[in-house]
Amino acid sequence: MSKGKEEVKLLGVWASPFVMRARIALNIKSVGYEFIQENLGSKSELLLQSNPVHKKVPVLIHDHKPVSESLIIVEYVDQVWSSSPSMLPSHPYDRAIARFWASYLDDKWYPTLKGIGGAKGEEERKVLIQQVEEGLALLEEAYKKISKGKPFFGGDRIGYLDIAFGSFLGWIKVTETVFGTALIEEVKTPGLAKWAEKFCEDVAVKPVMPETKKLVEFFYFLRAKFAGSA
């Protein structure tokens, strides 16, 4: 199924891991789209009209119809552009497991990672880093079971759970750089270390994975902004 470039728009912010999910999914399906960069300090009318409930990016606009929430967008892209292999596992149980881990990442693991940057003092930061590492140990085990020896959670190619987790790799690097901690490394999480390398080198990912240096600068910008408003 072929879709014209003019029919597909994505509202987003370059540094957002959630926006990155939508971009990777569109790249995997070879969908041409217009990326509209949002300024979250002054949200556009298009964003407010397209996502009046959450007023957040990403928003995919396809044939003038908006779709919100990153994982919902990934599934939508998968179903609409269905001529290439599905990003979701074919078996219902495998699909359920992929969705479970994606929910875990969004509801528990990533908020903890994000909390490291805003921790009040070294002790709180240490606790949060430990919790993130415990989560990575769980994800290492999950990777071994789900990948069955193949490069990705999705098997031979990037799938739904790869996108859900891989979108956070840029911010993992920021945390490692800013706070001098190694989170994904060969010694502690050998499977995830190899997976992360392959994921970042994939042709669907490489063009949209932000440089660590730029993300670190953005992190300090956000921190200064929040400190100023506080």
TrEMBL record:
<dbReference type="InterPro" id="IPR004045">
    <property type="entry name" value="Glutathione_S-Trfase_N"/>
</dbReference>
<dbReference type="InterPro" id="IPR045073">
    <property type="entry name" value="Omega/Tau-like"/>
</dbReference>
<dbReference type="InterPro" id="IPR036249">
    <property type="entry name" value="Thioredoxin-like_sf"/>
</dbReference>
<protein>
    <recommendedName>
        <fullName>glutathione transferase</fullName>
        <ecNumber>2.5.1.18</ecNumber>
    </recommendedName>
</protein>
<dbReference type="GO" id="GO:0005737">
    <property type="term" value="C:cytoplasm"/>
</dbReference>
<dbReference type="InterPro" id="IPR004046">
    <property type="entry name" value="GST_C"/>
</dbReference>
<dbReference type="InterPro" id="IPR045074">
    <property type="entry name" value="GST_C_Tau"/>
</dbReference>
<dbReference type="GO" id="GO:0006749">
    <property type="term" value="P:glutathione metabolic process"/>
</dbReference>
<keyword id="KW-0216">Detoxification</keyword>
<dbReference type="GO" id="GO:0004364">
    <property type="term" value="F:glutathione transferase activity"/>
</dbReference>
<dbReference type="InterPro" id="IPR036282">
    <property type="entry name" value="Glutathione-S-Trfase_C_sf"/>
</dbReference>
<dbReference type="GO" id="GO:0009407">
    <property type="term" value="P:toxin catabolic process"/>
</dbReference>
<comment type="similarity">
    <text>Belongs to the GST superfamily. Tau family.</text>
</comment>
<dbReference type="Pfam" id="PF00043">
    <property type="entry name" value="GST_C"/>
</dbReference>
<dbReference type="InterPro" id="IPR040079">
    <property type="entry name" value="Glutathione_S-Trfase"/>
</dbReference>
<feature type="domain" description="GST N-terminal">
    <location>
        <begin position="6"/>
        <end position="85"/>
    </location>
</feature>
<dbReference type="InterPro" id="IPR010987">
    <property type="entry name" value="Glutathione-S-Trfase_C-like"/>
</dbReference>
<feature type="domain" description="GST C-terminal">
    <location>
        <begin position="91"/>
        <end position="226"/>
    </location>
</feature>
<keyword id="KW-0808">Transferase</keyword>
<dbReference type="Pfam" id="PF02798">
    <property type="entry name" value="GST_N"/>
</dbReference>
